[in-house]
From TrEMBL:
Protein name: FBX21 protein
Keyword Transcription found: no
A family per Pfam: YccV-like
InterPro entries recorded: Clp_protease_adapter_ClpF, Hemimethylated_DNA-bd_dom, Hemimethylated_DNA-bd_sf
Gene from which this protein is expressed: Fbxo21_0
Domain Hemimethylated DNA-binding, chain residue ranges per copy: 121-223
Statement: the UniProt record of this protein carries the keyword Signal: yes
Keywords: Signal
NCBIfam families hit by this protein: yccV
Molecular function (Gene Ontology), one example: DNA binding
Leader peptide range in chain numbering: 1-18
Coiled-coil regions, chain positions: none
Length: 233
């Protein structure tokens, strides 16, 4: 039995496919040879034109590249956020996640830059239990900024012209005690609105274990990643 190599097999397949192709063309375009030739030429020209527009055009490849980059960037950002929150709730070090060189969490005392040295005018520390002077809810401090760090729209809404000076005072991020039945779960408030409570250990909030590992009798003990951000608290 003679040996058939790959080239010979390919030639046989092309010859065999020619018969059904010819039959298809004759059924589709009629039996007149001139018409078949003309319509086949138009079909080939149209197919080639479509191919060149899709794969041989610089504009088409530019569009493909933009789409690919967009999908890649979206996947990267989603992956970073998933990694961030997975480590967050596992109690591991809070990674410094950036997006085009800018921290994702830079507002409301969520920036990961190290607060060192700690200014003397910052009265309170992360882990201390507080009560809001006006609203009466209790909570625990999980972060602070030397002055309000928030979107400009939020600051304008929070501080009308008569309270503009408060923007430049220390602000604290609070996990609000769920036992108070207060509507919000977190707050970002100026120093003058809170006071420290001593001896109140139990603060109910679903994120407590992400920030703290226990209670030492006066305040909550920070997780290692949080202690690195606030080494002097």
């Amino acid at each position: 039995m003679p040996h058939i190599n790959a080239a010979a097999a390919l030639q046989i397949c092309v010859l065999l496919s020619a018969f059904p192709a010819q039959y298809f063309i004759s059924q589709l375009y009629g039996t007149d040879s001139t018409q078949r030739i003309q319509r086949t030429e138009r079909l080939i020209i149209a197919s080639w034109s479509s191919f060149t527009k899709s794969y041989l055009s610089l504009d088409a490849w530019a569009d493909h590249l933009k789409l690919w980059l967009s999908k890649t960037r979206t996947c990267l950002n989603v992956g970073l956020l998933i990694l961030h929150f997975r480590n967050w709730y596992a109690g591991e070090e809070n990674p410094k996640i950036v997006n085009n060189g800018v921290e994702i969490h830079s507002y409301f005392a969520e920036s990961t830059h190290v607060r060192s040295p700690k200014p003397e005018y910052i009265q309170f520390s992360v882990g201390q239990v507080i009560v809001h002077k006006r609203f009466g809810y209790s909570g625990v401090i999980v972060g602070w900024d030397v002055k309000a760090q928030a979107p400009e729209e939020w600051l304008q809404h929070k501080y009308p012209p008569a309270k503009q000076d408060l923007k430049d005072t220390p602000h604290y991020r609070i996990l609000i005690n769920k036992a108070n039945g207060f509507g919000k779960s977190t707050a970002y408030i100026p120093e003058e609105e809170i006071t420290i409570i001593m001896g109140l250990e139990v603060v109910h909030h679903p994120d407590m274990k992400a920030y703290f590992s226990g209670y030492d009798g006066s305040k909550y003990i920070m997780q290692p990643w949080l202690k690195k951000i606030y080494p002097h608290d």
